[in-house]
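so my prof wants the structure for this chain in the tokens format not the other one, which i didnt know existed until like an hour ago. anyway here's the sequence
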Amino acid sequence: MHGYEIIQEIARRTGGVWSPSPGSVYPTLQMLADEGLVSAEEEGGKKLFNLTERGRTEHTAPPWHDIESQLDPVDGELRTAVRLLGAAMEQISHAGAPEQKARAAELYNDLRRKLYAILAEE
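here's what i got, hopefully its the right format
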């Protein structure tokens, strides 16, 4: 994978909890290459990184493993629902007709009020 794909994969595997920046991923990849754990080769103007044989044998638990063990499954479901709702709203904002956008904004505002009502429950 190239660095951006690695960033996306980490975000996917952590349910969006951890999305490292390029400023942290690329130096880490360089450090792993210096240690002989990954190799890098140019392809189509991009650097593609692969685990070396040493990297496979010295593989430890992935860094997101600790995060996964601390996550509440319901929180993960909520984060997924929020992400999917955001994606739907983004689609409407880009491709929706004016009346569709108005209806979506009305639904979104209604949902916000209902969410606050849930928090107000005793």
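also thought this was worth mentioning. The chain has a mean pLDDT of 86.
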